[in-house]
Amino acid sequence: MSAAPVVAVQEVSLSIAPETYTAISGPSGCGKSTLLHLLGCVDTPTSGELFFDGHEVGSLGDRERSLIRLTRIGFVFQRFFLLPMLTARENVELPQGEAGARRAERRERTAELLDYVGLTSRAEHRPSQLSGGEMQRVAIARALANRPRLLLADEPTGELDETTGKQIADLLDRVHADGTAIVVVTHNTALAGRASQQLEMRDGRVRRRVGGAS
Amino acid sequence: MTSFGFAWRSLTRQPARALLGVTGVSVVGALLFDMLLLSGGLAVSFRDLLDGLGFDVRVTANQWVPSRGPLIGDGAGVLAKLRGLREVQDVTLLRFGQAEVVLDDDPDFSANFMGIRGRARKSWTVIEGQDLPEQDDPSIPSILVNRSLADKARLSAGDLLRLRGTCEPGAAAMPTTDFRVAGIVAFRFEAAGHHDSVTGLDAFLRACEPRDPDAATLFLVASHAEAGPAATVRAIRQALPDLHAYTNQQFVDRMQVTDFSYFRQISFALSTITLFFAFLLIATLLTVSVNQRLGEVAALRALGFRRRRIIADLLWESALFVGAGGLVALPLGGLIAGRLDAILREMPGIPAGLHFFVFQPRVVAEYTVLLAVTGVLAAAYPIYLAARLPITATLRREVVS
After folding, report:
1. Is the pLDDT of residue A214 over 50?
2. Residues A41 and A73: beta-carbon distance below 8 Å
3. Residue of A44, A68, A77, A152 for testing the chain B interface, max B β-carbons within 10 Å
4. Which of B296, B298, B398 sits opposite A83 (nearest CB)?
Protein backbone atom coordinates (compact mmCIF):
# COMPACT_ATOMS: atom_id res chain seq x y z
CA MET A 1 0.00 0.00 0.00
CA SER A 2 1.58 3.30 -1.06
CA ALA A 3 1.28 6.48 0.96
CA ALA A 4 -1.05 9.18 -0.39
CA PRO A 5 0.78 12.07 -2.07
CA VAL A 6 1.27 15.17 0.05
CA VAL A 7 0.67 18.59 -1.47
CA ALA A 8 3.42 20.60 0.20
CA VAL A 9 2.82 23.98 -1.42
CA GLN A 10 -0.28 25.17 -3.27
CA GLU A 11 -1.85 28.33 -4.60
CA VAL A 12 1.22 30.41 -3.90
CA SER A 13 1.82 33.44 -6.04
CA LEU A 14 5.00 35.15 -5.06
CA SER A 15 7.55 37.46 -6.56
CA ILE A 16 10.97 38.05 -5.06
CA ALA A 17 12.28 41.33 -6.36
CA PRO A 18 15.99 42.17 -6.33
CA GLU A 19 17.26 43.63 -3.08
CA THR A 20 14.17 42.60 -1.09
CA TYR A 21 14.22 40.79 2.24
CA THR A 22 11.49 38.21 2.69
CA ALA A 23 10.82 36.07 5.73
CA ILE A 24 8.65 32.95 5.60
CA SER A 25 7.33 31.57 8.83
CA GLY A 26 4.74 29.09 9.96
CA PRO A 27 4.40 25.83 11.85
CA SER A 28 6.50 22.79 11.06
CA GLY A 29 5.36 20.93 7.95
CA CYS A 30 3.50 23.91 6.50
CA GLY A 31 5.64 23.97 3.34
CA LYS A 32 8.15 26.71 4.17
CA SER A 33 11.27 24.74 3.28
CA THR A 34 9.64 23.29 0.19
CA LEU A 35 8.81 26.79 -1.00
CA LEU A 36 12.39 27.85 -0.26
CA HIS A 37 13.75 24.93 -2.29
CA LEU A 38 11.41 25.81 -5.14
CA LEU A 39 12.69 29.38 -5.06
CA GLY A 40 16.24 28.02 -5.01
CA CYS A 41 15.66 25.89 -8.13
CA VAL A 42 16.43 22.75 -6.13
CA ASP A 43 12.94 21.42 -6.76
CA THR A 44 10.54 22.10 -9.60
CA PRO A 45 6.80 22.48 -9.11
CA THR A 46 4.58 19.60 -10.20
CA SER A 47 2.11 22.19 -11.47
CA GLY A 48 2.20 25.93 -11.97
CA GLU A 49 5.11 28.02 -13.11
CA LEU A 50 8.31 29.22 -11.53
CA PHE A 51 10.54 31.80 -13.17
CA PHE A 52 14.06 32.74 -12.25
CA ASP A 53 15.52 35.73 -14.08
CA GLY A 54 12.92 35.18 -16.79
CA HIS A 55 13.70 31.47 -17.29
CA GLU A 56 10.95 28.94 -16.62
CA VAL A 57 12.69 26.71 -14.08
CA GLY A 58 10.51 23.67 -14.79
CA SER A 59 11.80 23.52 -18.35
CA LEU A 60 15.43 23.56 -17.28
CA GLY A 61 17.48 20.41 -16.85
CA ASP A 62 19.51 19.51 -13.80
CA ARG A 63 22.66 20.98 -15.34
CA GLU A 64 21.09 24.39 -15.97
CA ARG A 65 19.43 24.51 -12.57
CA SER A 66 22.72 23.53 -10.92
CA LEU A 67 24.43 26.38 -12.74
CA ILE A 68 21.78 28.85 -11.56
CA ARG A 69 22.19 27.65 -7.98
CA LEU A 70 25.96 27.83 -8.22
CA THR A 71 26.25 31.29 -9.68
CA ARG A 72 23.09 33.23 -8.82
CA ILE A 73 21.74 31.74 -5.59
CA GLY A 74 23.37 31.28 -2.21
CA PHE A 75 22.16 28.76 0.35
CA VAL A 76 22.48 28.89 4.12
CA PHE A 77 21.33 25.84 6.07
CA GLN A 78 20.23 25.36 9.64
CA ARG A 79 22.90 22.69 10.17
CA PHE A 80 25.55 24.72 8.31
CA PHE A 81 26.73 21.70 6.30
CA LEU A 82 30.29 22.89 6.12
CA LEU A 83 32.63 20.18 4.94
CA PRO A 84 34.41 19.02 8.08
CA MET A 85 37.67 18.05 6.37
CA LEU A 86 38.14 21.51 4.88
CA THR A 87 39.20 24.71 6.62
CA ALA A 88 36.95 27.75 6.75
CA ARG A 89 38.93 29.24 3.86
CA GLU A 90 38.63 26.07 1.77
CA ASN A 91 34.90 25.84 2.47
CA VAL A 92 34.43 29.37 1.13
CA GLU A 93 36.69 28.69 -1.86
CA LEU A 94 34.90 25.49 -2.82
CA PRO A 95 31.90 26.92 -4.75
CA GLN A 96 34.18 29.42 -6.49
CA GLY A 97 36.37 26.59 -7.76
CA GLU A 98 33.29 24.76 -8.97
CA ALA A 99 32.22 27.91 -10.82
CA GLY A 100 35.61 28.06 -12.53
CA ALA A 101 37.18 30.99 -10.68
CA ARG A 102 40.97 31.17 -10.86
CA ARG A 103 43.10 30.48 -7.83
CA ALA A 104 44.21 34.08 -7.25
CA GLU A 105 40.67 35.31 -7.73
CA ARG A 106 39.38 32.71 -5.27
CA ARG A 107 41.96 33.62 -2.68
CA GLU A 108 41.16 37.31 -2.94
CA ARG A 109 37.39 36.83 -2.79
CA THR A 110 37.66 34.38 0.12
CA ALA A 111 39.84 36.76 2.13
CA GLU A 112 37.35 39.54 1.43
CA LEU A 113 34.39 37.38 2.54
CA LEU A 114 36.06 36.09 5.70
CA ASP A 115 36.85 39.68 6.59
CA TYR A 116 33.23 40.57 5.82
CA VAL A 117 31.91 37.97 8.29
CA GLY A 118 34.66 38.77 10.83
CA LEU A 119 36.52 35.47 10.65
CA THR A 120 39.85 36.37 9.04
CA SER A 121 41.70 35.01 12.05
CA ARG A 122 39.82 31.71 11.81
CA ALA A 123 40.50 31.10 8.12
CA GLU A 124 42.63 28.04 8.66
CA HIS A 125 40.41 26.46 11.29
CA ARG A 126 38.23 23.49 10.54
CA PRO A 127 34.52 23.48 11.38
CA SER A 128 35.12 21.31 14.42
CA GLN A 129 37.30 24.12 15.81
CA LEU A 130 34.62 26.77 15.32
CA SER A 131 31.59 27.69 17.40
CA GLY A 132 28.06 27.38 16.00
CA GLY A 133 27.88 31.11 15.26
CA GLU A 134 31.27 31.04 13.55
CA MET A 135 30.24 28.05 11.46
CA GLN A 136 27.11 29.85 10.33
CA ARG A 137 29.14 32.92 9.44
CA VAL A 138 31.45 30.73 7.34
CA ALA A 139 28.36 29.21 5.73
CA ILE A 140 27.09 32.72 4.89
CA ALA A 141 30.49 33.60 3.42
CA ARG A 142 30.35 30.39 1.37
CA ALA A 143 26.82 31.28 0.18
CA LEU A 144 28.06 34.69 -0.97
CA ALA A 145 31.19 33.29 -2.64
CA ASN A 146 29.94 33.51 -6.22
CA ARG A 147 28.22 36.88 -5.71
CA PRO A 148 24.63 35.55 -5.83
CA ARG A 149 21.68 37.85 -6.47
CA LEU A 150 19.53 35.84 -4.07
CA LEU A 151 20.43 34.39 -0.68
CA LEU A 152 18.17 31.67 0.72
CA ALA A 153 18.46 30.78 4.38
CA ASP A 154 16.62 27.89 6.00
CA GLU A 155 16.36 28.45 9.75
CA PRO A 156 19.79 30.12 9.88
CA THR A 157 19.48 30.73 13.62
CA GLY A 158 17.79 27.42 14.41
CA GLU A 159 20.89 25.87 15.97
CA LEU A 160 22.13 28.99 17.71
CA ASP A 161 21.51 30.69 21.04
CA GLU A 162 19.74 34.05 21.18
CA THR A 163 22.86 36.23 21.23
CA THR A 164 24.57 34.35 18.43
CA GLY A 165 21.31 34.26 16.49
CA LYS A 166 21.15 38.04 16.74
CA GLN A 167 24.70 38.31 15.38
CA ILE A 168 23.71 36.18 12.40
CA ALA A 169 20.56 38.27 11.90
CA ASP A 170 22.74 41.41 11.93
CA LEU A 171 25.01 39.83 9.35
CA LEU A 172 22.05 38.98 7.10
CA ASP A 173 20.88 42.59 7.45
CA ARG A 174 24.28 43.70 6.22
CA VAL A 175 24.18 41.30 3.29
CA HIS A 176 20.77 42.65 2.35
CA ALA A 177 21.92 46.23 2.75
CA ASP A 178 24.81 45.48 0.41
CA GLY A 179 22.37 44.59 -2.37
CA THR A 180 21.52 40.90 -2.14
CA ALA A 181 17.90 39.77 -2.04
CA ILE A 182 17.24 37.46 0.91
CA VAL A 183 14.55 34.90 1.61
CA VAL A 184 14.74 33.42 5.05
CA VAL A 185 12.64 30.61 6.50
CA THR A 186 12.47 30.98 10.25
CA HIS A 187 10.57 30.37 13.45
CA ASN A 188 12.51 33.22 14.98
CA THR A 189 10.09 36.15 15.16
CA ALA A 190 12.88 38.64 15.82
CA LEU A 191 14.63 37.54 12.65
CA ALA A 192 11.39 37.51 10.66
CA GLY A 193 10.63 41.01 11.94
CA ARG A 194 13.71 42.35 10.19
CA ALA A 195 12.35 41.40 6.75
CA SER A 196 10.60 43.90 4.51
CA GLN A 197 8.12 41.23 3.43
CA GLN A 198 6.80 38.60 5.83
CA LEU A 199 4.81 35.57 4.72
CA GLU A 200 3.05 33.28 7.10
CA MET A 201 2.30 29.82 5.73
CA ARG A 202 -0.15 27.17 6.83
CA ASP A 203 -1.05 23.91 5.09
CA GLY A 204 1.04 24.79 2.05
CA ARG A 205 -0.65 28.12 1.49
CA VAL A 206 0.41 31.69 2.23
CA ARG A 207 -2.14 32.77 4.85
CA ARG A 208 -0.83 36.20 5.73
CA ARG A 209 1.41 38.64 4.01
CA VAL A 210 2.89 41.68 5.69
CA GLY A 211 4.73 44.31 3.68
CA GLY A 212 6.24 43.72 0.25
CA ALA A 213 4.92 44.55 -3.19
CA SER A 214 2.92 41.43 -4.08
CA MET B 1 39.61 22.08 -4.98
CA THR B 2 39.89 19.30 -7.52
CA SER B 3 37.98 16.04 -7.22
CA PHE B 4 41.25 14.31 -6.41
CA GLY B 5 42.01 16.74 -3.59
CA PHE B 6 38.47 16.45 -2.33
CA ALA B 7 38.65 12.65 -2.34
CA TRP B 8 42.00 12.73 -0.59
CA ARG B 9 40.58 14.94 2.16
CA SER B 10 37.54 12.67 2.49
CA LEU B 11 39.82 9.69 2.89
CA THR B 12 42.18 11.27 5.38
CA ARG B 13 39.27 12.75 7.31
CA GLN B 14 38.80 9.32 8.87
CA PRO B 15 42.32 7.89 9.08
CA ALA B 16 41.22 4.68 10.78
CA ARG B 17 38.69 3.95 8.04
CA ALA B 18 41.26 4.80 5.38
CA LEU B 19 43.89 2.60 7.00
CA LEU B 20 41.50 -0.32 7.35
CA GLY B 21 40.32 0.08 3.76
CA VAL B 22 43.80 0.33 2.30
CA THR B 23 44.97 -2.61 4.41
CA GLY B 24 42.01 -4.69 3.26
CA VAL B 25 42.62 -3.83 -0.39
CA SER B 26 46.34 -4.57 0.10
CA VAL B 27 45.70 -8.04 1.45
CA VAL B 28 43.08 -8.87 -1.16
CA GLY B 29 45.25 -7.30 -3.87
CA ALA B 30 48.28 -9.34 -2.76
CA LEU B 31 46.28 -12.55 -3.08
CA LEU B 32 44.98 -11.49 -6.48
CA PHE B 33 48.50 -10.66 -7.62
CA ASP B 34 49.72 -14.06 -6.43
CA MET B 35 46.94 -15.88 -8.24
CA LEU B 36 47.76 -14.04 -11.44
CA LEU B 37 51.43 -14.95 -10.99
CA LEU B 38 50.38 -18.56 -10.48
CA SER B 39 48.01 -18.66 -13.45
CA GLY B 40 50.80 -18.47 -16.01
CA GLY B 41 53.86 -18.95 -13.84
CA LEU B 42 54.20 -22.69 -14.23
CA ALA B 43 53.98 -22.53 -18.00
CA VAL B 44 56.55 -19.74 -18.23
CA SER B 45 58.94 -21.46 -15.85
CA PHE B 46 58.48 -24.83 -17.54
CA ARG B 47 59.12 -23.29 -20.94
CA ASP B 48 62.31 -21.71 -19.58
CA LEU B 49 63.43 -25.08 -18.26
CA LEU B 50 62.75 -26.80 -21.58
CA ASP B 51 64.47 -24.09 -23.59
CA GLY B 52 67.38 -24.18 -21.19
CA LEU B 53 68.22 -27.77 -22.18
CA GLY B 54 69.34 -26.58 -25.59
CA PHE B 55 66.82 -28.74 -27.49
CA ASP B 56 63.67 -27.34 -29.10
CA VAL B 57 61.87 -30.51 -30.25
CA ARG B 58 60.96 -33.72 -28.44
CA VAL B 59 60.04 -37.06 -29.98
CA THR B 60 58.12 -39.65 -27.96
CA ALA B 61 56.13 -42.82 -28.59
CA ASN B 62 52.81 -41.17 -27.73
CA GLN B 63 51.38 -37.93 -26.45
CA TRP B 64 52.16 -38.64 -22.81
CA VAL B 65 54.99 -37.14 -20.84
CA PRO B 66 58.10 -39.24 -21.80
CA SER B 67 58.60 -41.09 -18.52
CA ARG B 68 54.91 -42.13 -18.43
CA GLY B 69 54.51 -43.43 -21.99
CA PRO B 70 55.71 -46.54 -23.80
CA LEU B 71 59.19 -46.88 -25.25
CA ILE B 72 60.12 -46.08 -28.84
CA GLY B 73 61.19 -49.23 -30.67
CA ASP B 74 64.12 -49.36 -33.10
CA GLY B 75 65.93 -46.54 -31.33
CA ALA B 76 68.99 -46.79 -33.55
CA GLY B 77 66.85 -46.60 -36.70
CA VAL B 78 64.90 -43.61 -35.43
CA LEU B 79 68.13 -41.91 -34.39
CA ALA B 80 69.56 -42.39 -37.89
CA LYS B 81 66.41 -41.09 -39.55
CA LEU B 82 66.31 -38.04 -37.34
CA ARG B 83 69.95 -37.27 -38.00
CA GLY B 84 69.26 -37.56 -41.70
CA LEU B 85 66.70 -34.75 -41.70
CA ARG B 86 68.11 -31.48 -43.03
CA GLU B 87 66.12 -29.45 -40.45
CA VAL B 88 67.83 -31.33 -37.60
CA GLN B 89 71.11 -30.09 -36.20
CA ASP B 90 71.54 -32.47 -33.27
CA VAL B 91 69.74 -35.50 -31.80
CA THR B 92 70.15 -37.17 -28.43
CA LEU B 93 68.62 -40.51 -27.40
CA LEU B 94 67.58 -40.99 -23.79
CA ARG B 95 66.56 -44.11 -21.93
CA PHE B 96 65.17 -43.84 -18.42
CA GLY B 97 65.44 -46.50 -15.72
CA GLN B 98 66.07 -47.15 -12.06
CA ALA B 99 69.03 -48.57 -10.17
CA GLU B 100 69.64 -49.99 -6.73
CA VAL B 101 72.74 -48.33 -5.35
CA VAL B 102 74.79 -50.74 -3.26
CA LEU B 103 75.33 -49.06 0.10
CA ASP B 104 76.43 -50.75 3.30
CA ASP B 105 74.08 -48.76 5.47
CA ASP B 106 71.02 -48.73 3.17
CA PRO B 107 70.40 -51.91 1.18
CA ASP B 108 67.14 -50.60 -0.35
CA PHE B 109 68.51 -47.35 -1.67
CA SER B 110 67.49 -46.63 -5.26
CA ALA B 111 68.20 -43.85 -7.71
CA ASN B 112 67.02 -42.62 -11.08
CA PHE B 113 69.27 -44.04 -13.74
CA MET B 114 69.49 -42.66 -17.27
CA GLY B 115 71.36 -43.70 -20.39
CA ILE B 116 72.30 -41.18 -23.07
CA ARG B 117 73.58 -41.34 -26.63
CA GLY B 118 74.51 -38.04 -28.18
CA ARG B 119 75.32 -34.64 -26.80
CA ALA B 120 73.73 -33.63 -23.55
CA ARG B 121 74.00 -29.92 -24.43
CA LYS B 122 72.76 -28.11 -21.32
CA SER B 123 70.87 -30.97 -19.69
CA TRP B 124 73.18 -30.72 -16.70
CA THR B 125 75.93 -28.57 -15.27
CA VAL B 126 79.10 -30.12 -13.88
CA ILE B 127 79.73 -28.80 -10.38
CA GLU B 128 82.58 -31.12 -9.44
CA GLY B 129 84.89 -33.34 -11.51
CA GLN B 130 84.34 -33.83 -15.23
CA ASP B 131 81.61 -34.53 -17.77
CA LEU B 132 81.11 -37.96 -19.38
CA PRO B 133 84.08 -38.71 -21.66
CA GLU B 134 83.71 -39.02 -25.44
CA GLN B 135 85.35 -42.46 -25.32
CA ASP B 136 84.57 -44.40 -22.18
CA ASP B 137 86.39 -47.30 -20.49
CA PRO B 138 84.02 -50.26 -20.98
CA SER B 139 85.45 -52.15 -18.00
CA ILE B 140 84.58 -49.39 -15.52
CA PRO B 141 82.26 -46.95 -17.31
CA SER B 142 81.82 -43.36 -16.17
CA ILE B 143 78.74 -42.07 -14.46
CA LEU B 144 77.52 -38.65 -13.37
CA VAL B 145 75.54 -38.25 -10.17
CA ASN B 146 73.68 -35.34 -8.67
CA ARG B 147 74.63 -33.76 -5.36
CA SER B 148 71.86 -35.52 -3.50
CA LEU B 149 73.05 -38.97 -4.61
CA ALA B 150 76.71 -38.05 -4.03
CA ASP B 151 75.95 -36.95 -0.49
CA LYS B 152 73.83 -40.01 0.26
CA ALA B 153 76.46 -42.43 -1.08
CA ARG B 154 79.35 -40.24 0.17
CA LEU B 155 80.80 -39.97 -3.34
CA SER B 156 83.36 -37.65 -4.84
CA ALA B 157 84.63 -37.43 -8.40
CA GLY B 158 86.82 -40.46 -9.11
CA ASP B 159 85.10 -42.76 -6.58
CA LEU B 160 83.61 -46.11 -7.51
CA LEU B 161 79.85 -46.55 -7.47
CA ARG B 162 78.33 -50.02 -7.48
CA LEU B 163 74.76 -50.35 -8.61
CA ARG B 164 72.25 -52.84 -9.92
CA GLY B 165 70.05 -51.79 -12.81
CA THR B 166 66.30 -52.30 -12.24
CA CYS B 167 65.05 -50.81 -15.40
CA GLU B 168 61.99 -52.94 -16.07
CA PRO B 169 59.38 -54.00 -13.56
CA GLY B 170 59.33 -57.74 -12.90
CA ALA B 171 62.71 -58.32 -14.50
CA ALA B 172 65.13 -60.75 -12.90
CA ALA B 173 67.65 -59.30 -10.46
CA MET B 174 70.72 -58.05 -12.28
CA PRO B 175 74.29 -58.47 -11.14
CA THR B 176 75.95 -55.33 -9.83
CA THR B 177 77.96 -53.08 -12.13
CA ASP B 178 80.79 -50.82 -11.07
CA PHE B 179 80.93 -47.24 -12.34
CA ARG B 180 83.51 -44.56 -11.81
CA VAL B 181 82.02 -41.23 -10.78
CA ALA B 182 83.31 -38.80 -13.42
CA GLY B 183 81.62 -35.82 -11.84
CA ILE B 184 78.89 -34.43 -9.69
CA VAL B 185 76.32 -32.50 -11.68
CA ALA B 186 73.14 -30.48 -11.31
CA PHE B 187 70.46 -31.77 -13.68
CA ARG B 188 68.20 -29.13 -15.15
CA PHE B 189 65.10 -31.22 -14.35
CA GLU B 190 66.37 -32.46 -11.02
CA ALA B 191 63.74 -32.65 -8.30
CA ALA B 192 64.55 -31.65 -4.74
CA GLY B 193 65.80 -34.68 -2.78
CA HIS B 194 65.79 -36.99 -5.78
CA HIS B 195 68.85 -39.10 -6.48
CA ASP B 196 69.75 -38.98 -10.18
CA SER B 197 72.50 -40.46 -12.30
CA VAL B 198 73.39 -40.66 -15.99
CA THR B 199 75.79 -42.74 -18.00
CA GLY B 200 76.43 -43.62 -21.60
CA LEU B 201 73.71 -45.71 -23.26
CA ASP B 202 75.98 -48.77 -23.70
CA ALA B 203 76.89 -48.83 -20.01
CA PHE B 204 73.22 -48.29 -19.13
CA LEU B 205 72.18 -51.30 -21.23
CA ARG B 206 74.91 -53.45 -19.69
CA ALA B 207 73.73 -52.56 -16.19
CA CYS B 208 70.06 -53.11 -16.99
CA GLU B 209 69.97 -55.72 -19.75
CA PRO B 210 66.46 -54.69 -20.80
CA ARG B 211 64.26 -56.94 -22.92
CA ASP B 212 64.39 -54.42 -25.77
CA PRO B 213 67.90 -52.97 -25.76
CA ASP B 214 67.22 -50.98 -28.93
CA ALA B 215 64.35 -49.00 -27.46
CA ALA B 216 64.45 -45.36 -26.40
CA THR B 217 62.37 -43.37 -23.95
CA LEU B 218 62.78 -40.03 -25.67
CA PHE B 219 64.65 -38.20 -28.39
CA LEU B 220 65.76 -34.65 -27.86
CA VAL B 221 66.23 -32.72 -31.08
CA ALA B 222 67.93 -29.39 -31.73
CA SER B 223 66.75 -27.69 -34.92
CA HIS B 224 68.88 -25.74 -37.31
CA ALA B 225 68.31 -22.06 -36.63
CA GLU B 226 67.15 -21.40 -40.18
CA ALA B 227 64.58 -24.23 -40.03
CA GLY B 228 63.10 -23.55 -36.61
CA PRO B 229 61.25 -26.01 -34.37
CA ALA B 230 57.89 -25.89 -36.18
CA ALA B 231 59.40 -26.92 -39.53
CA THR B 232 61.47 -29.59 -37.80
CA VAL B 233 58.37 -31.04 -36.17
CA ARG B 234 56.62 -31.12 -39.55
CA ALA B 235 59.60 -32.91 -41.10
CA ILE B 236 59.78 -35.48 -38.28
CA ARG B 237 56.05 -36.19 -38.47
CA GLN B 238 56.41 -36.78 -42.18
CA ALA B 239 59.45 -39.05 -41.79
CA LEU B 240 58.24 -40.88 -38.67
CA PRO B 241 54.42 -40.77 -38.73
CA ASP B 242 54.08 -43.30 -35.89
CA LEU B 243 55.92 -41.11 -33.42
CA HIS B 244 54.90 -37.91 -31.69
CA ALA B 245 57.04 -34.85 -32.24
CA TYR B 246 56.35 -31.49 -30.66
CA THR B 247 58.05 -28.21 -30.03
CA ASN B 248 58.77 -26.92 -26.54
CA GLN B 249 55.77 -24.59 -26.78
CA GLN B 250 53.50 -27.44 -27.91
CA PHE B 251 54.73 -29.48 -24.97
CA VAL B 252 53.98 -26.60 -22.60
CA ASP B 253 50.54 -26.16 -24.18
CA ARG B 254 49.81 -29.82 -23.58
CA MET B 255 50.95 -29.58 -19.98
CA GLN B 256 48.69 -26.55 -19.58
CA VAL B 257 45.62 -28.66 -20.29
CA THR B 258 46.81 -31.66 -18.31
CA ASP B 259 49.20 -31.38 -15.37
CA PHE B 260 49.06 -27.60 -14.96
CA SER B 261 45.31 -27.24 -15.37
CA TYR B 262 44.72 -27.77 -11.63
CA PHE B 263 46.81 -24.75 -10.80
CA ARG B 264 45.14 -22.69 -13.50
CA GLN B 265 41.71 -23.61 -12.18
CA ILE B 266 42.70 -22.89 -8.59
CA SER B 267 44.19 -19.61 -9.69
CA PHE B 268 41.05 -18.66 -11.62
CA ALA B 269 38.74 -19.58 -8.73
CA LEU B 270 40.79 -17.74 -6.12
CA SER B 271 41.27 -14.70 -8.39
CA THR B 272 37.50 -14.47 -8.82
CA ILE B 273 36.94 -14.79 -5.07
CA THR B 274 39.58 -12.17 -4.23
CA LEU B 275 38.10 -9.76 -6.78
CA PHE B 276 34.67 -10.31 -5.28
CA PHE B 277 36.04 -9.55 -1.81
CA ALA B 278 37.79 -6.45 -3.12
CA PHE B 279 34.51 -5.36 -4.69
CA LEU B 280 32.58 -5.95 -1.44
CA LEU B 281 35.19 -4.19 0.66
CA ILE B 282 35.41 -1.06 -1.46
CA ALA B 283 31.66 -0.92 -2.10
CA THR B 284 30.94 -1.23 1.63
CA LEU B 285 33.49 1.40 2.62
CA LEU B 286 32.25 3.89 0.03
CA THR B 287 28.59 3.18 0.75
CA VAL B 288 29.12 3.71 4.48
CA SER B 289 31.09 6.85 3.71
CA VAL B 290 28.35 8.23 1.45
CA ASN B 291 25.64 7.37 3.97
CA GLN B 292 27.56 9.26 6.64
CA ARG B 293 27.82 12.28 4.35
CA LEU B 294 24.36 12.40 2.81
CA GLY B 295 23.70 15.83 4.32
CA GLU B 296 26.97 17.19 2.94
CA VAL B 297 26.29 15.73 -0.49
CA ALA B 298 22.77 17.18 -0.51
CA ALA B 299 24.14 20.56 0.60
CA LEU B 300 26.77 20.51 -2.15
CA ARG B 301 24.07 19.70 -4.69
CA ALA B 302 21.91 22.54 -3.32
CA LEU B 303 24.91 24.86 -3.63
CA GLY B 304 25.05 24.02 -7.32
CA PHE B 305 27.58 21.19 -7.50
CA ARG B 306 26.68 19.03 -10.46
CA ARG B 307 26.12 15.30 -10.32
CA ARG B 308 29.23 14.81 -12.44
CA ARG B 309 31.35 16.43 -9.76
CA ILE B 310 29.88 14.23 -7.01
CA ILE B 311 30.53 11.16 -9.19
CA ALA B 312 34.11 12.25 -9.86
CA ASP B 313 34.74 12.75 -6.14
CA LEU B 314 33.56 9.23 -5.35
CA LEU B 315 35.45 7.67 -8.25
CA TRP B 316 38.62 9.34 -7.04
CA GLU B 317 37.99 8.11 -3.53
CA SER B 318 37.61 4.59 -4.87
CA ALA B 319 40.71 5.06 -7.00
CA LEU B 320 42.68 6.16 -3.95
CA PHE B 321 41.59 3.09 -1.99
CA VAL B 322 42.42 0.81 -4.88
CA GLY B 323 45.58 2.67 -5.87
CA ALA B 324 47.12 2.86 -2.41
CA GLY B 325 46.06 -0.66 -1.45
CA GLY B 326 47.01 -2.00 -4.87
CA LEU B 327 50.51 -0.53 -4.66
CA VAL B 328 51.14 -1.92 -1.19
CA ALA B 329 49.82 -5.26 -2.43
CA LEU B 330 52.62 -5.67 -5.00
CA PRO B 331 55.56 -6.11 -2.60
CA LEU B 332 53.30 -7.92 -0.15
CA GLY B 333 52.15 -10.28 -2.90
CA GLY B 334 55.75 -10.77 -3.95
CA LEU B 335 56.71 -11.85 -0.43
CA ILE B 336 53.75 -14.22 -0.13
CA ALA B 337 54.44 -15.63 -3.60
CA GLY B 338 58.04 -16.33 -2.67
CA ARG B 339 56.99 -18.27 0.42
CA LEU B 340 54.21 -20.17 -1.36
CA ASP B 341 56.58 -20.98 -4.21
CA ALA B 342 59.10 -22.44 -1.77
CA ILE B 343 56.37 -24.59 -0.16
CA LEU B 344 55.01 -25.87 -3.49
CA ARG B 345 58.47 -26.65 -4.81
CA GLU B 346 58.97 -29.03 -1.91
CA MET B 347 56.30 -31.30 -3.41
CA PRO B 348 57.82 -34.60 -4.53
CA GLY B 349 58.92 -34.83 -8.14
CA ILE B 350 58.97 -31.11 -8.83
CA PRO B 351 62.14 -30.03 -10.67
CA ALA B 352 64.13 -27.68 -8.48
CA GLY B 353 64.34 -25.18 -11.32
CA LEU B 354 60.57 -25.03 -11.77
CA HIS B 355 58.70 -22.12 -10.21
CA PHE B 356 54.97 -21.78 -9.65
CA PHE B 357 54.88 -18.01 -9.18
CA VAL B 358 56.74 -16.20 -11.95
CA PHE B 359 56.83 -12.44 -12.35
CA GLN B 360 55.89 -11.17 -15.78
CA PRO B 361 55.15 -7.53 -16.75
CA ARG B 362 51.90 -8.80 -18.30
CA VAL B 363 50.71 -9.87 -14.84
CA VAL B 364 51.15 -6.35 -13.46
CA ALA B 365 49.12 -4.98 -16.37
CA GLU B 366 46.35 -7.56 -15.82
CA TYR B 367 46.40 -6.89 -12.09
CA THR B 368 46.09 -3.14 -12.65
CA VAL B 369 43.20 -3.51 -15.08
CA LEU B 370 41.33 -5.97 -12.85
CA LEU B 371 41.70 -3.79 -9.75
CA ALA B 372 40.73 -0.66 -11.70
CA VAL B 373 37.59 -2.31 -13.07
CA THR B 374 36.74 -3.60 -9.58
CA GLY B 375 37.20 -0.12 -8.14
CA VAL B 376 34.88 1.41 -10.72
CA LEU B 377 32.24 -1.30 -10.26
CA ALA B 378 32.47 -1.05 -6.48
CA ALA B 379 31.93 2.70 -6.69
CA ALA B 380 28.82 2.26 -8.85
CA TYR B 381 26.29 1.79 -6.04
CA PRO B 382 27.56 4.59 -3.77
CA ILE B 383 27.73 6.82 -6.85
CA TYR B 384 24.13 5.94 -7.66
CA LEU B 385 23.14 6.78 -4.06
CA ALA B 386 24.91 10.12 -4.13
CA ALA B 387 23.96 11.16 -7.64
CA ARG B 388 20.27 10.31 -7.24
CA LEU B 389 20.00 11.83 -3.79
CA PRO B 390 16.72 13.76 -3.31
CA ILE B 391 18.17 17.07 -2.13
CA THR B 392 15.17 18.52 -0.31
CA ALA B 393 14.18 15.29 1.42
CA THR B 394 17.74 14.61 2.50
CA LEU B 395 18.29 18.08 3.92
CA ARG B 396 14.99 17.85 5.79
CA ARG B 397 15.87 14.39 7.13
CA GLU B 398 19.28 15.61 8.29
CA VAL B 399 17.71 18.51 10.18
CA VAL B 400 15.01 16.36 11.77
CA SER B 401 17.56 13.72 12.81
Report:
1. no
2. yes
3. A77
4. B296
